[in-house]
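Researcher: Structure prediction, please.
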Amino acid sequence: MEKKRLSEILQGMQKKKVLVLGDLMVDEYIWGKASRISPEAPVPVVEVGGQSLVLGGASNVAHNIHSLEGDVLLVGIVGADQIGENLKEELAKKGLKTEGLLVDDTRPTTLKTRVIAHNQQIVRIDREDKSPLSPEMESKVMDYLATKIDEVEALIVSDYGKGVITPVLSAQLIALARQKGKFIAVDPKGNDYSKYKGASLLTPNKKETETALNTFLDSEEKIVEGGRTLKDSLDLDSLLVTRGEEGMSLFTPQGDDLHIPAVASKVYDVTGAGDTVISTLVLALAAGASLPEATIISNYAAGVVVKKIGTSTVTRKEIKEIIKMGENDEQED
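Model: Predicted structure follows.
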C-alpha cells in the first residue's frame, strides 16, 4: 500500500463513530510473591503486593477504537454491583463514554481475576452469569440501539459468550443494520453461528472456524474450502479468518480471496489481538478504506499488540511505525 494512501486512511479514522455491542468484562490482576506452600493444602501462599484492573471483552474493542482516535459508543450490560461501577470508572479514566452501559440487577458484572506470582499465573477465578438476557433486557438493549444507529457509521458485535448476544438480539440488530445500510462486523463465539446470519463480516479465528464447521482445517486447501463454505452458509458479505502465526485469510463477495502473512516475528501475548483486528478494520472501513486495505492495516495492528504483554491497544503512530519497519526489512532483503 502506498504511503500516501495509508496516511489518508489512518488520518481519516479520527472521529469516525462506531457502535460496539457486546459482553463487557473486567480483567483483574492480583500481583504477589509465592515463597511457601500452605499447611492447609498443597497450594502456594501468595503474598499480595498489588492489584490492577484492565478493560476486557467488548470494553477492549471500544478502547482500541478510542486509542485509534475514533469516536466509539459502547453498549452492553453491567450488574448493579461494585465491579460495574469500577468498569464505568475505568472507561471514564480512558476517556470513553458510559451512557450505553445498561444495568441488569439480576446478573453480576463479568469479572476475571488472575493471581500472578513471579510472572506466572497461579489461578484464574471467573465471576459471571452466562445465561441469556431476559426478553425484557433484550428489548431494552434493542430499543437503545435503535435510537443510536443513525448516529454511527458502522457497528461491531463483540460476542464473548456471556449471554448478551442472544440469537434474538443478534438477528434484530443485523436486520436493522442492513435496513439502515450500516456495515456490521461480528467477532463470534460458540458452536452455533446461525445467529450471525446476514452480517457484513465475521472475524473468527482458525479454531473458532473449525468449531463452526465441525472439521479440522489442516491445509491451505481446507482453509479455502472451509472459509467459502462458512461465508456462503451464513449469507455473509465477507469472512476474515485470523490464523495467528499463519496470518489472515479474507473471503470476499467477489470470490477474490486474500491471504496475508503474519507481521510479527516475535509473539509475546495474543490476548485481545482479535479485539484489535476487528476495531482497526471497521474503523479503517469507516475512513474510506476498501476491505482488502482495511484487512492489511488490521494485520499490521495485530502485529503491534501481540508484542505487548496482556490486553493491549494500538495507536495510529504504532501502525505507521510497524509498516515502516516492514518496508525497511524488505529493502534490506
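Model: The mean pLDDT is 92.
Researcher: Thanks, that helps.
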